[in-house]
Amino acid sequence: MPVRIRLSRGGAKKRPFYRIVVADSRRARDGKFIDQIGTYNPMLPKDSADRVKMDLDKAKEWIAKGAKPSDRISIFLSNLGVMEKPVITEKTKKHLPKKKAQERLAAAKEKEEAAKAAAEEPKAEEAEAKPAEDAQPAEEPKAEEPEAKPAEDAQPAEEPKAKAEEAEAKPAEDAQPAEEPKAEEAEVKKE
Fold first, then answer.
1. Could you give the angle at which helices 176-190 and 154-169 cross, rounded to 10 degrees?
2. For 41, 92, 102, 132, which has the most beta carbons within 10 A of its beta carbon?
3. Strands 3-12 and 15-24
């Protein structure tokens, strides 16, 4: 006999109240059942403790005997920590927009992408022009450092070269690479 844990409806018209029952799957929804293990009142707020009441020991017992919970009961049991949450997929396509609406959405996306591409082109041209200008000021600190401190040639000379390479890689930071080596020189002089 295929046994299911499912809902059995009670209550008045437009005022549902359900019993959580263990029943033969071939019986009517509100018909004869084997055992009642809880209640479900959908009229109560979702955060209410009285919305779903279930005897978890009986539910575990019936599941161990081979009773299969319905989809709704599986969700209740997963919320109570008895079993894993079931995967419920969309089975219909009624929730999707119709054909003309999809075409309008696609056209709107294309317009947005074209606007973004047009906005990025001037920025890209400016960025390409700035690295060439930025490379010259970044090289000037290299020439100043050996004249200022001939004893400390090895360490300060390498740092500005690395900064110049970073300046070429990062065109957005046009003013900072030229100033950073000076700040590092001051730190080296303090030491």
1. 160
2. 41
3. antiparallel
Specify if 92 maps to a domain: no
Phi and psi, residue 66, nearest 5°:
115, 5
B/e letters for 25-58, b = 16+ CB within 10 Å, e = fewer, are: eeeeeeeebbeebbbbeeeeeeeeeeebebeeeb
* Host domain of residue 119: 99-190
Residues 113 and 181 in one domain: yes
Residue 29 placed within a domain: yes
Q: Per the structure, how many domains does the chain have?
A: 2
Instruction: Based on the fold, state whether residues 8 and 39 are members of the same structural domain.
Output: yes
Tell whether 61 and 104 lie within a shared domain. Answer: no
Give the model confidence (pLDDT) of 33-86 as tens digits. 999 999 999 999 999 999 999 999 999 999 999 999 999 999 999 998 888 888
Q: pLDDT by residue (tens digit) across 101-132?
A: 999 999 999 999 999 888 887 776 666 666 55
Per-residue tokens: 38: 């809880």
Residue 37 belongs to a domain with what CATH number? 3.30.1320.10
Query: What token pair was written down for 120?
Result: 């990025």
Beta strands in the chain (DSSP E): 3-12, 15-24, 35-40, 52-54, 68-69
Q: What is the DSSP letter of 80?
A: T
Q: Are residues 143 and 177 in the same domain?
A: yes
